[in-house]
Specification:
The structure holds two protein chains of two kinds. By secondary structure, chain A is an alpha+beta fold. Chain A has two domains: about 40 residues, no CATH class; about 45 residues, HU Protein, Chain A, CATH 4.10.520.10. In chain A, the strands form two sheets. Chain A has a three-stranded antiparallel β-sheet. In chain A, strands 4-5 form a two-stranded antiparallel sheet. In chain A, strand 2 and strand 3 form a beta hairpin. Chain A is elongated. In chain B, a hairpin with a 6-residue loop joins strand 3 and strand 4. In chain B, the strands form two sheets. Chain B has a three-stranded antiparallel β-sheet with strand order 1-2-5. In chain B, strands 3-4 form a two-stranded antiparallel sheet. The chains are: A alpha+beta, B alpha+beta. The interface between A and B is large, with 50 and 49 residues.
């Protein structure tokens, strides 16, 4: 079992919003986060973690299946740094 | 962008009050944190997925002093970027 968007929408619905409004609010939230990262801006959520945009230089790589050499182009990726609080929560859960 | 700015932006975009926006942001990240603490996976289509990875104990070194230290077993959330986000962030 995994937590999905739908589970979160259900919790927002329990706040008193209609189901439709709850979906819209979560979609807006996701869109804000995505467009912020798209603009190259980090998103810092205290108590949870930080979503960062990192630039990777182009490098020589290899296709692990065929052993073929190829050039991996310069690209941008999203990384996540877990906050100390979340880390503690996950490790103290047993 | 930090959490407060996210709340303020959500308030305007979704046309809800600041208190409601704060609650929604809290529910969103709080549910993900709770799921991970319970060892559950998180899958938010288009944004990202998370699962908890177990790291075994190992002997590491303090890079400054060269001193050997034992690293105790730990769990960390492993982040995987969603397809839509990946494509939008890249060039």
């Amino acid at each position: 079992m995994a937590l999905t968007k739908n589970d979160i929408v259900t919790k927002v619905h329990e706040m008193g919003f209609t189901k439709k409004k709850s979906t819209d609010v979560i979609e807006s939230l996701l869109e804000i986060i995505k467009s912020e990262l798209e603009d190259g801006e980090d998103v810092l959520i205290s108590g949870f973690g930080k979503f960062c945009v990192k630039e990777k230089k182009k490098r020589r790589g290899r296709n692990p299946a065929t052993g073929e050499e190829l050039i991996l182009r310069k690209r941008k990726v999203v990384t996540f740094k877990c906050s100390g609080k979340l880390r503690q929560k996950i490790n103290n859960s047993e | 962008m930090n959490k407060l700015e996210l709340i303020a932006t959500l308030k305007n975009e979704a046309g809800i009050s600041k208190a409601e926006a704060a609650k929604v942001v809290e529910i969103f990240f709080g549910s993900m944190a709770d799921a991970l603490a319970g060892g559950e996976r998180v899958e938010i289509r288009g944004l990202c997925s998370f699962f908890v990875k177990d790291y075994k104990s190992y002997v590491g070194r303090n890079p400054k002093t060269g001193e050997k230290v034992t690293i105790v077993p730990k769990k960390l959330p492993f982040f995987k970027c969603g397809k839509e986000l990946k494509e939008r962030v890249d060039y």
